[in-house]
Design brief:
This protein is of the alpha/beta class. The chain folds into 3 domains: 58 residues, Winged helix-like DNA-binding domain superfamily/Winged helix DNA-binding domain (Arc Repressor Mutant, subunit A), CATH 1.10.10; 232 residues, no CATH class; 116 residues, no CATH class. Helices cover 42% and strands 15% of the residues. Helix 2 crosses helix 3, helix 8 runs antiparallel to helix 12 and helix 17 crosses helix 18. The protein binds S-adenosylmethionine. S-adenosylmethionine binds next to loops.
Length: 505
C-alpha cells in the first residue's frame, strides 16, 4: 500500500462504502469510478493499493469486492456442501442425482413469446415443456406455478393444451404473463394500435420523469424525452392490445438505457452513444410480438384454455383444492434477488410504483431477500424457533460470523434466512392442498453461501416439503453457479421433486 507515498487522489472511505454496497456481487473499477465521481485511472490505482494491503480483492472478470466478503470457509466449523449431501442421504434416503438439460432463462431470450419480456430470473421454457410432455397430463388439466414471474410455466402449459394457473406479486411480471398467454391477440389490431401510439407520441410534448433518483443518469437526454412521450401516448391498459403495448414499452427500457442486468441492474459495459431510439425499439418489440403470434397461430388447435394469473401473495394462493395435476416453480432463492429493485424501471415508468415507499412496500410483501427493510426480519431473530434442526444449527453460525466480521451490510442475516423459510412454508402447504393425490410439485431452487455459512437451500426446501406431508421423489443437480460472496465457491441449482401421497385427502 502506498504508505508514505503521495496523498491518494481517491479517498478510501467512499470507495470502500461503494464496494460494501455491492457486497458479494462486486463492482467493476468503472462502476466504482462513476459511483465516487473520480477518474477511472485514479480509482484503478487506488484499488491496486487497497488490494496489496489486503483490503479488497479482484474476483475475476474485473470485479472487485471487499476482502471481508471473500471467505470464511477456512474457519473451523464450516460445514461443506458434501457433508449436507451425505446427511440428506442418511436422513431422507435420497441421493443427489443429475439433470442434463436446459434450466436457465438464456434460451428464452430468443424463444417466441418468452422473449416479449425477458426475465433474467426466469427459468427455461424448454425445461418446463419437457416436464409437461413427460407428465403426459390429460388435455385441459391444471398446472400451477405459485411464483409465476414472467409466465414461463403458464405459457408452456397453454401451448401443451393445459390450463396454467399462476400467482405473482411483481405487477409488470403479472402483466407480461397475462399478455404472453393471450395467444389469440389480434396481430392487426396490435399493429394499428402501435402505429397510433407512435403517432401520438410524435406529437406530444415531453412528460414528467418518474420518481427514480437516477433517471437522468440512466438515460441520455433525448432518450428520456422520447420515453416520456411514448409512455404518455400509451392507451390505458383496459384492453388486451393496450396491455400488450405496455409490455412492449417495458421490454425496451433496459435496451435503450445505460443500464444492463447481469443479473442485477447496474451500469457499465454499454456505450451510451449507441443506445437504440425508443420509438424504433418499440416498433421492433411490437413486430416481434406480431411474428410470434403468427407462429403460435399455427398450433391453435392444440392450445389449452386461457391461463389464470393472480396478482397475489403466493402465501395466500387461491388455487382450488385437490384439482391441480402438477405444480412447477422456481421460488426466490434464500439470499436471492431483489426483484423489486431489479425491475424498478418497469415499476416506475409504467406507474405501478410512484415513490420509493411503494417499492419498499412491495419488497416487504415478497418472500424475504437480503434487501428487506431494517426491522422486517425482527420477528425471526431467534434460531431456536426454526422448525428444521438443520436451520437451528446453521442460523447461529451465520449470526456468529456476522458478529465476528462486523463488516456485513446488516446484522440480521440469520433472521432473513429464518423468515425466508417461514415465508415458503405456507406456499408449499397451499400447493400441497391444491394438488391431486399423487400430484408432484417440482421446484428449481439453489443453495447459497451467506455470511460465510453454506446454506443448502435446495435440501432445506425438500425437507420443508417432507415436513408438510410430501414425499421427496428426487433432488437433481441441474447446473453449478458461482457464489456471489466468493467466486471460487461452487454453488448449484437443483430440481427438487416432491410428491403428494396417493392416499392424501
Ligand atoms: C425465480 S422468480 C420466478 C420466475 C419464473 N419461473 C419465470 O420463469 O419467469 C421468483 C418470483 O417470485 C416472485 N415473488 C416473490 N415473493 C412472492 C410472493 N410472496 N408471492 C408471489 N410471488 C412472489 C418474484 O417477484 C419473482 O418473480
Amino acid at each position: 500500500m502506498g504508505n508514505g507515498g503521495p496523498a491518494p487522489t481517491v479517498p478510501t472511505a467512499p470507495l470502500l462504502r461503494a464496494l460494501s454496497e455491492t457486497g458479494a456481487i462486486g463492482s467493476t473499477a468503472r462502476q466504482l469510478a462513476e459511483r465516487v465521481s473520480r477518474p477511472l485511472p485514479a480509482v484503478s490505482e487506488r484499488l491496486a493499493e487497497l488490494s496489496e494491503a489486503g483490503r479488497v480483492l479482484r474476483i475475476g472478470r474485473g470485479l472487485w469486492i471487499l476482502r471481508d466478503f471473500e471467505t470464511l470457509d477456512g474457519q473451523s466449523g464450516f460445514v461443506e456442501p458434501a457433508a449436507y449431501t451425505e446427511r440428506f442421504l442418511n436422513e431422507e434416503g435420497v441421493p443427489l442425482g443429475r439433470y442434463d438439460g436446459p434450466i436457465t432463462f438464456a434460451d428464452n431470450e430468443t424463444a417466441p413469446v418468452h422473449r416479449w419480456w425477458p426475465y433474467v430470473q426466469g427459468y427455461s421454457a424448454g425445461f418446463v415443456a419437457g416436464l409437461l410432455e413427460r407428465a403426459d397430463l390429460p388435455r385441459g388439466a391444471s398446472v400451477l406455478d405459485p411464483f409465476s414471474g414472467s409466465g414461463t410455466t403458464v405459457v408452456e402449459a397453454r401451448r401443451a393444451g393445459l390450463r396454467g394457473l399462476g400467482a405473482e406479486l411483481l405487477p409488470p411480471a403479472v402483466l407480461a404473463a397475462r399478455v404472453k398467454t393471450d395467444f389469440g391477440l389480434s396481430r392487426a389490431a396490435l399493429g394499428t394500435a402501435a402505429r397510433a401510439c407512435l403517432e401520438r407520441a410524435a406529437r406530444r410534448a415531453p412528460g414528467p420523469l418518474p420518481f427514480l433518483r437516477e433517471t437522468e443518469r440512466q438515460f441520455a437526454p433525448a432518450t428520456r424525452e422520447a420515453l416520456t412521450r411514448l409512455r404518455d401516448a400509451l392507451p390505458p391498459p383496459t384492453t388486451p392490445v393496450a396491455r400488450a403495448l405496455r409490455v412492449a414499452f417495458g421490454r425496451i427500457l433496459i435496451p435503450v438505457s445505460r443500464l444492463r442486468r447481469s443479473p442485477c441492474l447496474g451500469y457499465g459495459g454499454k456505450d451510451p452513444a449507441v443506445a437504440p431510439d425508443p420509438m424504433a425499439a418499440f416498433s421492433s418489440a411490437v413486430a416481434e410480438m406480431q411474428a410470434d403470434l403468427a407462429t403460435l397461430d399455427r398450433d391453435r388447435a392444440s392450445w389449452g384454455p386461457r391461463a389464470t394469473l393472480w396478482e397475489v401473495d403466493a402465501r395466500r394462493l387461491p388455487a382450488p383444492k385437490g384439482r391441480v395435476a402438477l405444480a412447477v416453480t422456481s421460488p426466490p432463492y434464500v439470499n436471492g434477488m431483489d426483484y423489486v429493485m431489479n425491475y424498478k424501471l418497469d415499476l416506475a415508468w409504467l406507474g405501478y410504483a410512484r415513490s420509493y415507499d411503494d417499492l419498499i412496500r412491495l419488497r416487504t410483501a415478497m418472500v424475504a431477500c437480503d434487501n428487506l427493510p431494517r426491522g422486517a426480519a425482527d420477528a425471526y431473530l431467534r434460531p431456536d424457533e426454526a422448525d428444521d434442526p438443520w436451520l437451528r444449527e446453521l442460523l447461529p453460525r451465520i449470526r456468529a460470523n456476522v458478529a465476528r466480521k462486523r463488516t456485513y451490510r446488516r446484522d440480521d442475516v440469520h433472521g432473513i434466512v429464518l423468515r425466508y423459510f417461514a415465508d415458503l412454508r405456507p406456499v408449499l402447504a397451499r400447493v400441497y392442498d391444491a394438488l391431486v393425490p399423487d400430484g408432484r410439485f417440482v421446484l428449481v431452487v439453489g443453495d447459497s453461501l451467506l455470511a460465510g455459512t453454506y446454506v443448502p437451500g435446495d435440501l432445506l426446501v425438500a425437507r420443508l416439503g417432507r415436513a408438510l406431508g410430501f414425499s421427496i421423489d428426487s433432488v437433481q443437480v441441474a447446473r453449478s453457479r458461482r457464489s456471489g460472496q466468493r467466486r471460487s465457491f461452487e454453488l448449484r441449482e437443483s430440481i427438487v421433486t416432491l410428491r403428494k401421497p396417493r392416499a392424501a385427502a
